[in-house]
Records
---
Amino acid sequence: MKATVWISTSLLLVFVAATFMPKECAAQSNAVVMSRPAGKKGHLREPDPPVVDAALNADQEASTEQLAARSESDAFETLTEDRFVVDEAYLNKAVFRAYKQRQGQGVALAVEHLKRRAPGAKKRFHVARKVFEVFPDAASETLPALYNTADVTTKANIIRVSGKIADERIRTLLVSALNDRTPLDEEEENPELADFPPLRLCDLAYNQLVLRYRVRGPLRAIGFAHRVAARDANIEILKGKLSVPETLYHATGDE
C-alpha cells in the first residue's frame, strides 16, 4: 500500500513540474536538444587537396625547385620518372612547384593525356591526374567544359581522374554521369573482355564517387563481371545515398 502511494505521489510531482515549469526553463531545455551540432554526417565531405609542402631531403627539394625553370612539357616528362611516381609526397610538391605560376598551362598539358584511345602510358596518366588534384580550381574550370564536347574515350578518362579533385563542379560532373549509360569501346585494347558487358560511363562514375566519398554500400566497385542489372541497381542505391548524405559513410569514425 505504501509503495502504491509513493508511486502515485511521484507521478503527481512529475505532472505538476511539467505543467508549471516556467516557459524560459522549457525553452532552455529545448534549446539544448536543438543546438546539438549536426556534425559532418549531414554534408558531403569533399576530398582533401594533396599536401604540397611536405618536408623533403635536400636533393629532392633542389630537384623540385628546378622544375619551375623548365618548359611545361619538359617538366611533365621529368615528373614521370620513377623517383617521383613512387613517392606521393615528392610528386605532390614537385607538381606544385613546377606549375604553381602556370597552372593553366599545366592543366592544359595534362588534358592532352586524356584524349587518347586509352590511358596508355600509365605514368603520364598518373602525373596528369596529380596535376588536376594539386590544382583543383584550374582543373575544374577546364574538365567540365571539355567533358561536354568530348568523345566517349575522353569522357571516360575525365571520369577516371576526377575522384579526388576537390571541387563541387567535379562532383556535379560525376553525379550527372551516373545517368549516362553510353558504353565504352575497349574490346580492341582488351580482347579478353569481349564476352563481358562493356563498362559504361555511369559505371565509371559510380566507382569514382564511391572512392570520393568512401561510400558504405553493397559494391565497392563495378567491374566487367557484374551483370548490367546489378550495376543499375547499385547505381540507384548510390543516387539515393547521395541525396541523403548521412547514409554515405562508414560508422567507424570516418565521419
---
Amino acid sequence: MAHSLPDYTTKYKLVRLFSNMDFSEFAARINQMVVYDRRGNIIWFDDFEGGTLCWVSNGSGVGNTEVLSTDQPFIGSQCCKITTGNLNNDYGGIVREFQRPPTSQLGIEISFTSKANIDRYELQFTYFTGTTSYTAYAGVDTTTHTLFYYDAAGAYQTLASNVLCWVGNYFYHTMKLVVDFSTGNYVRFLFANRSYDMAGIPMRTGVSAEETRVLTGFRCQASANGGHSMYVDRFIFTENDI
C-alpha cells in the first residue's frame, strides 16, 4: 500500500508495490480444478482422486465398465476410465443425482479424451419437479465434426459445424453446458474455448411424477464393434451460472 494510506485506497498509483491478483487467478495457479470457465458457484466437483467412484453407470452392452484409473489423468494421479459395450452404438458413461439447488441457472463441465472408435461425447442434464421433467443434452460428434443438442421434440440437432476434436493420449478436451430450469431453455454450450449461445432454445419436457431432483451425467458412444475406452476427469457442477 502507499505510505500513510489505508490498504484499500485507490487514491494513488502503486509504483513499487502491486495489488493482489484476484482470488480466482490465485486459485488456478495453485492447481485448483476450475481452470476452464470460472463463471458460476461450485455446488460439487469430482477430481476422481478418491478411492471410490462416486457415480452410477450410464452405459450399455456387454463389457461396459466405469472405473477409477491411473492410466491417463488430466490433473492429479487418477481419472475415470470408461469402456463402452462390445457392439457398435453401445454406450459408456456415468451419472450422478443431486437435490435440486435453489437457483435455476445451472452448469456442468467435464474434461475428456477423444479416442478412436468412439465418436459421440455428451453432457446430460435432467431435472424432475415432481410433475414435469426437463431434459438437456449437448455434446460433440467426431465423425460429423459437429456440436449437437437434444431439442424439445426429442431429436438431436446441429449446434455448430466444422468442429475439430483431436484424438490423442493425454489430450483432454473440456465442454460445459449451462441451462435455465426456470425457463426450460438452454443458455450456452462451451467447447474448445468457444462459447455457443443457446438462449431461447427450449429443452425437452414431459409429464413425470418422479421425485424432485437433478441428474447430471456424461455418455460416450462406440462407432465400431469391440469395447473401446476413453477417460474423463474434472467434473464440476455450478449454480448461478451466466
---
Amino acid sequence: MNSKVIAVIVVVIILIAGVALYIVSLKLGGSVNDSTGTTGVSGTSAGKSAVQYVSDNLTVGFQSGLWTVTLRNTGVSGISYIVVYLLTPVESKLCGGTTEDAGLAFINCQLQLPGNPFPSGSILSGTGSGIGEGSAKVGSAYPVGAELTFSNGTVVWVNSTVTAQSPS
C-alpha cells in the first residue's frame, strides 16, 4: 500500500475514535472532577432518592491498575440494580450483587440478578483491578458513570470523573 492511502486510513480511524469518545462523553457528562483522588460529591435524584460519590480513586501500575469507588445512597428509595462504569481505554465495570454485603464487584456483573444491593442510607464500595484500569494513563481524567435502577424501574445516571495516579 502506498503511504498516502495508509495516512488517509489512519486519519479516518482517528476521526471515528474522536466521534465515539465525544458521544460517550455526552452520555456520561461528568459533574465532578476528583483529580486529587480524595472525596468528591455528585448527585442526582429519582423521586426521593439521591446517590453521591464518596470517593473514587484510580492508581495505575505496570500493565495493571486499581480502581476503588464508594457511593452513598442518601435518599429514601433503595436501588435494585447498580452498574458503575470506568471509561478508560479498556472499559471496566463493577456491579452490585443481590444484597448490600456483596458490594460492588466485577463478578456480580456476570449474575445480573436484581435484589436490594443498595438500600436507602447505605454505603456501597468496590474495587476493580486489571487490564481496564491498567489501560489508563497517569495524569489523565476518565469518566465514571453509575447506572442506577430503582425498584419502580426508573433508571438514573450519576456521573463523575477520576484522574489516574501513579502508586505512592
---
Amino acid sequence: MKFILSKINLLISITVIPLDDIKDFLQRNNLKLPKTTKEIYELAESTILNEKADFYSDPIIDWIIAYNFNGNVESHSEKEILRMTKENLSELSERLGSDNSDINSIINVLFYLGKFKPSNKR
C-alpha cells in the first residue's frame, strides 16, 4: 500500500500514536523492535515516511491522514461526535481528507490533530 506523504504538517509527532500500535505496526512488517521507546518511534516514522511498509493498521493510517491534513477543522467533543448522524460523520471525514467515516478513525484523526476533546466521564 502506498501513501502520499506531504511535509505540510511536521508538527504531528508520531509519538501521539500509542506505543502498542507502533509495536504492532513494526512487528506486522517483520521489523525487529529496537530496545528503547525513542528508537521504536524513530523506526516506525522512518518506515512510514520512506514508504517501506507492506501493512498499515488503522491508527497508522489515521496518523498519515492527520499528518497530511492541511485544512482547518474545528475541535469536537466526544459527546458531539457520538451524537452525529452518519451523514455528519461522513461530511467530517471528508473535511479531514479521509474516505473512512468510521467513528474511531475520525476520533483518532481529530486526536492526532489536537482537535478532540474527550468527555470527562468514563
